Amino acid sequence: MVRFVSTLSLLSCAAAFAMAHGGEDMDMDMDAHASTTAVVPVPHEPKHLHGLPILQWPTLTTAERLYWENYNTTTYFTTSEGSRAALRYHASTLLLLAFVLYPVSLALSAARSRWYLPLLFANLCVGASSITVLFLYKTSFPGDDLYPHNIYGTTSAVLLALMLVHFFAAVLAVPVSPEPLHDYHPVDAIPLDDLESTPVMVSHSARGSPSPSSNRDTLCSLSSGTNHKRGHDDDDYYDDDDADADITAIESPPLASQEVPLFHILFASAWYRALARRLSRPALAVFHLLNYSLFVYVFVDMVVGFAVGNLLGKGIRIFNLLAHWIKGGVFFILGVVSLARYCGFGAKYGWAWNRVCITAHLSHERSSNLLFRLAPAGTVTMEGIESFLIFFYGSTNVFLEHLAGSGGAWTAKDLQHVSIAFMFIGTGLCGLLTEYKLNHWRFDRARGHSHADLVAATPGYSPNPFPAFTIFWTGILMSQHAQASQTSTTIHMQWGYLLSYGSFFRLLTFLILFLVPNARGTASKPFTELITSFCLLCGGLVFMESTDQSIDAMEYRGLTPMFTFNLSVGFVSLLMAWEMILFIWKDWLVKTRKTSL
Q: What is the pLDDT of residues 137-152, one digit of tens each?
């Protein structure tokens, strides 16, 4: 009985406890069920914060959150102030000028097409209207400028002045003689003993027509055989045309006067002919000085406008912007030049990896080409030019790295950057010394056992590793350069590795040309240079994107490093295709013009 009463009391206590807490447990079960049904099933939860706008990061400190909450996204491109139509017109016409009109005019200039001056005039009109509308936009902008004391107005005015000078120099450089220009043609041949090729001895008269009796220092392009008629294959003809066009591009006016549409009335006038007789020579020098340098300046003005339009580089941040954009721009331009060399640019100097010989007649007459006249026995190679530019840049960059902290003590970061400048000085100087040591090697390798009267010769390359070595270590060092954020570090690794890959394929180019010498005067077209060009172009572009303000803009919007990397790869691929199209079109124009002569 006692045991039964005890058991009954225990059950009653348990029931009382359940009655007291049962309602709370039921509510918890209902809440858990409700929260379970509200969860959206996903295969994987995000394990990192990349890809989210930075204000959604739960790990921000108080100082970081204060910075990003006050981050201002207002720029000239996002504000509604001022004439939006004027800004859009200026931006679109400047892009049209940089990527379409002026590159097309350069192709027509190299081909000495009769449509060059009309297009150059259209180029001037578009550029002048774009810059005029820019100043109209500035007057329509109310209140204070978003970027006070910027230099974009000055650079744009300089661009307009250079375009005017370049156009009038091109007009005055047109020959007044009704006789059309002629190209270099083969007039003699001297066989080489050790090669199955024939050097094409070319000479040029004072008026530009071929003349075997008025030999000067000339270019000797080596072709596979003595058949130089128009019946040979397209590749040989393409390369020979390209070399001939490059030779006459410097020593001759851009085109013949009687061939130019819309300008024949001007060229027929007496006052123009009198003025051209006096100014044609200095005008021709100015024309060639500005023809390619103006192309570079158009892009300089465009990137300055992009920086000002997006309020980049204000205050102390100007030094970070300049450091990235100058260096990245150099690599980008180097990529453009590398692809142009593959397409035949600079073939007359052997810069298209083609074999070139400079001969001298027994009369010892001087060549009118300054570079030919001053060339050493192994000629001036692109590797030598690159070594000089590396040395020059390193020399000027020693003190530029401390500008942001001018007046203060040198920090470890300053010394780290200056050590890269020291590397540029050392490798540039080593490259110049290597060019000196390889001078006679290049001459002997290109000449072979020929008895030709050669004063200079090059096989089309110089096995000088220091330019590629410099690019390789610049990429490696910067890929290991830790930054303030993971996004910035990743982007630095991207362009650092791209530069390293490009230098690796440049060394493969040397290896290919060394093992399989080019016995012809045509461009070698090593496939490795296509990859090198891509790596330099893309690496330089990503380099320019890695500024502090660009990283801030990306992180604020939640853009990952792969976003800009993908865009850069796509843009560079399209740019390379456009550049190759222009060269192919130029060579077709040259072939068509020669056929019609």
A: 999 888 768 898 899 9
